[in-house]
Every structure is written in C-alpha cells, then in structure tokens.
Design brief:
Layout lengths: L11 E7 L5 H9 L17 E7 L3 E7 L7 H15 L4 E7 L6 H12 L4 E6 L13 E3 L8 H11 L19 E5 L13 H12 L3 E5 L1 H10 L6 E4 L4 H7 L6 E3 H9 L2 H6 L12 E5 L11 H14 L4 E5 L13 E4 L7 H13 L4 E3 H9 L2 H4 L5
Parallel strand pairs: 1-3, 1-4, 4-5, 5-6, 7-8, 7-9, 9-10, 11-12, 11-13, 13-14
Antiparallel strand pairs: 2-3
C-alpha cells in the first residue's frame, strides 16, 4: 500500500503544543525537513491548528498538528486556545515544546496534567539548545535545536518508543473472514453517493478483504438478488450500506450473515457493545427530548441527507414522539452533553480511533446514551440482532 494514500484517520497523530515563540513551527520543519509551517519572530503566527500528513521513519504515515500558543491573549486568543484543546482529543502523542531559556512553567504543567488524565503519551521538548544547553533530563525530556537540527533524530526515536502500538484493537473485517471467502458488498449509488467514487468505509473494507486473500463482490441493491443467484457457493457474509438494511435483509437468505459498513466501523473505531447498549434509549424518548446527531466529517448536504433528514424522520416515525434534533459535524463535538437524551453518531471513518473513543467516553462520563447510525437503522429495520451475528 502506498503510504502517501493512507487515510488521515489511520495516521499517527502527533500534536505540537507550547507557548507562542517556543519554536513549535520550527520544530515541525526540522522533524520533517520541510518548510511546512510558517516561522516568524512575531508572536501568534499560528492562529489555527495546521494539519500536515507525511511519512516519518521509522513510524510510517503520520499527521502533524501544529497548534496556536497556549499563552495566547485576548478574545481571539481564548478561541484559539479552545481550538488547541480540541486537538488534544485526537492525538496519539503530544510534544510539549519549551523554550530552554524560559523553562517549564504553569502552562506546561497544566497541559501535562491534562494529558496524563487522558492517558496520552507526551514528551517535553526543550528547544533552542544552541542558546542554552540542558543536562540531567529525564527519560520523558529531550533537548533539541530546531535551528541547528541538533537532537532531531533522537527526538524521532523517542517518539517511536513512546508509541507502543497505534493499531486499532479490531480491524474492519479481516478477522471475520478467511482466504478464498466471498464477501458481497452492497453500495447504493444514489443522490448521496460522492460523484466518481465510493465512500471511505467501503474503500477500506474492500482493501482489507483483498489483503486477506478473499474476494469482494460489489453491487447495488437492484443487482443483489442476481449476484447471489450467480454464485456457485454462498458468500461468507453480505455487508450493506446501513440505509439499505430494510431492502437488503429481504433479499439475503436468513442463513447468510448480514451486517453494515457502519456497524463494522463501530467495532473498528469505537466500542461496539457500549453503542449497542445506547440503543435502549430509543425506546424511552418522549416529546421534547433532545437528540444529537453527530458526524465526524463535513460534507455538502443533499436534499435527502442521512444525518439531517433521514435519521430524524425515522426516529420520529419509530418513536411516535416530537423530539428535538441538534447537529454537530467535523471537529465540533459539544463538551456539555447533559441536555441530550441520546446521541446518534456516524461510523467515524474520518476520525481516528482516539477521537472516536474520546467522544464515546465523554458521553459515558456524562451518562448520555450514544449509538451509531448503522445500529439505529438496523433496529428500525428490524434486523439489529441479525446484523450483530457476524461477531459471534
């Protein structure tokens, strides 16, 4: 696989944090040996998190996130710091950049405590060693000079040691199939399908099937019956777009396992059975309850959009209640979830595992049920139990 084509959500996320002019942007440029970030003596040059995907040996595909200074000031500064804090929820490791001449202070210590609470590995990187050399550092500290490239290779090695493993606990599908198995993938092409391509979960599922030396047969709902009849042996399973659960379940014989891309992603990126437990809240919704529909990406909304149109309609029709819907997308996920009776989240294909699990944990901590698009659609279609049988 070409590492340059690795989806951003599958890359190791390395966050760069520190005060203004600590040398965060210079450090990224030194590590990558590229002029990725703008460097200036003017404080506050970086005003928004800057993402840069690249390959970094010996780690492989990574995503660097350069953030605004933690000591930013004023009303805009407070907003920038809020953006920086949001980055923490999606990184696999943090580099806290400290000016060697200034030293570590309360700001860095507060960030350390926050990272420890979230169980995120981090390194204290004392920059500008060319101006002030430091000694007696702990295993969690390193002295570098982004200006002279001193200590940069050692820093890369430290990062690699800190990251024991970034492989998700569960793959998408490879542990559920064997070589020579046939998997039928139902991918409707309608007004919500991206022009000229298929969506990321479908791409990733196909890739894992091929890597497992199994066969992927892809079709639309209208061709599914003919495809199944044409096969000399039954497929190992059928995986469908969740929106087609109702139609597909009527076509696929009961003895053939059936699930959805969204449910596979729930296991791959999140906590499948916690989200399954969250489904119970659907039965208890009442008039006036607030339901949050959350997506991990931002995209152009179609007239029949699944998140803002289809799911709200189906929930109201299923529960016979007049619930109130709120929406979030992309990196915006509410910190206060207490007003919601249920959260329905997308499969999270554009989020890395850490951010998806952060969102689930945030809901857990506040006692708010959270479930997944695929599970909700399977429940409403009457095939939820069947859709989970592939994991037995």
């Amino acid at each position: 696989m070409n590492l340059n084509m690795t989806p951003n959500a599958d890359r190791i996320h390395i966050g760069i944090f520190g005060r203004r002019n600590a040398g965060k942007s210079s450090l990224i440029n030194a590590i990558t040996n590229q002029n990725i970030a703008i460097v200036s003596p003017v404080k506050g040059t970086t005003t928004d998190p800057v993402y840069k995907a690249m390959e970094l040996l010996p780690l492989g595909p990574v995503m660097f996130v350069d953030t605004p200074g933690l000591d930013d000031e004023g009303e805009l500064g407070a907003l920038r710091i809020k953006k920086t804090n949001q980055v923490i929820n999606k990184i696999d490791i943090a580099l806290i950049v400290i000016d060697s001449e200034t030293g570590k202070g309360e700001i860095e210590e507060a960030l350390e405590e926050k990272l420890k609470a979230k169980k995120i590995p981090y390194l204290l990187v004392y920059n500008k060693s060319d101006l002030k050399a430091l000694s007696g550092l702990s295993e969690n500290e390193i002295s570098v000079s982004a200006e002279n490239l001193e200590g940069i290779e050692a820093l890369k090695e430290h990062i690699a040691k800190k990251l024991k493993s970034t492989t998700p606990e569960f793959p998408i599908i490879s542990d559920l199939i064997e070589p020579s198995d046939i998997v039928v993938l139902v991918t409707p092409i309608d007004e919500s399908a991206p022009k000229g391509r298929i969506i990321l979960p479908q791409q990733q599922t196909i890739r894992e099937i091929l890597d497992s030396h199994a066969s992927a047969i892809t079709c639309q709902v209208s061709e599914l019956g003919g495809v199944l009849e044409s096969l000399r042996r039954s497929p190992k399973m059928v995986i469908t777009d969740s929106q087609a659960f109702g139609e597909v379940s009527k076509i696929v014989p009961r003895e053939i396992p059936l699930s959805s891309f969204s449910i596979l992603m729930a296991r791959h990126k999140g906590e499948l059975f916690h989200q399954l437990n969250g489904m119970k809240a659907l039965e208890n919704l009442k008039d006036g309850d607030k339901v949050l529909i959350s997506e991990g990406c931002t995209h152009h909304r179609q007239c029949n959009d699944i998140g803002t149109v289809k799911i709200p309609y189906l929930i109201k029709d299923y529960t016979k209640t007049d619930v109130v819907f709120k929406f979030s997308s992309g990196s915006e996920f509410p910190e206060d979830l207490s007003k919601y009776s249920l959260i329905v989240h997308c499969g999270g294909c554009m989020l890395n595992e850490r951010e998806m699990k952060y969102r689930i944990q945030t809901a857990k901590d506040q006692g708010v049920p959270i479930t997944n698009y695929g599970m909700l659609l399977a429940k409403i279609s009457g095939v939820l139990d069947r859709s989970l049988e592939i994991f037995n």
